[in-house]
UniProtKB/TrEMBL annotation:
<feature type="domain" description="FLZ-type">
    <location>
        <begin position="15"/>
        <end position="59"/>
    </location>
</feature>
<feature type="zinc finger region" description="FLZ-type">
    <location>
        <begin position="15"/>
        <end position="59"/>
    </location>
</feature>
<dbReference type="InterPro" id="IPR007650">
    <property type="entry name" value="Zf-FLZ_dom"/>
</dbReference>
<keyword id="KW-0862">Zinc</keyword>
<keyword id="KW-0863">Zinc-finger</keyword>
<dbReference type="InterPro" id="IPR044533">
    <property type="entry name" value="FLZ1/2/3"/>
</dbReference>
<feature type="region of interest" description="Disordered">
    <location>
        <begin position="73"/>
        <end position="94"/>
    </location>
</feature>
<dbReference type="Pfam" id="PF04570">
    <property type="entry name" value="zf-FLZ"/>
</dbReference>
<keyword id="KW-0479">Metal-binding</keyword>
<comment type="similarity">
    <text>Belongs to the FLZ family.</text>
</comment>
<protein>
    <recommendedName>
        <fullName>FLZ-type domain-containing protein</fullName>
    </recommendedName>
</protein>
């Protein structure tokens, strides 16, 4: 079955406006569509907000992880400067 949007875009591939990106609910031609980051469609404000909250939580987690890595790197550099042996978790294989 051809989608409503394929008539406009000439493609049989699913279009990003066909279903909610979170709950996969079908988005009809006369339904409200809530957009996020330009190309992510949602069926409701609630689904959109849930995705935003999820993305913000991931971003906070990444920032905390990056801070802890920088802190470990800084501590290793201090230990190395003090003449202590420092081992890292990096393995290079040729």
């Amino acid at each position: 079955m051809a989608s409503y949007y394929s008539a406009f875009f000439g493609s049989e591939e699913p279009h990003f406006l066909e279903s909610c990106s979170l709950c996969s609910k079908h988005l009809g031609p006369n339904s409200d569509i809530f957009m996020y980051r330009g190309d992510t469609a949602f069926c409701s404000q609630e689904c959109r907000e849930e995705q935003i909250e999820s993305d913000e939580a991931k971003e906070r987690s990444w920032k905390l992880s990056a801070r802890s890595l920088r802190k470990k790197s800084s501590e290793a550099a201090k230990d190395s400067a003090a003449g202590k042996t420092v081992r890292t978790g990096t393995l290079v294989v040729a």
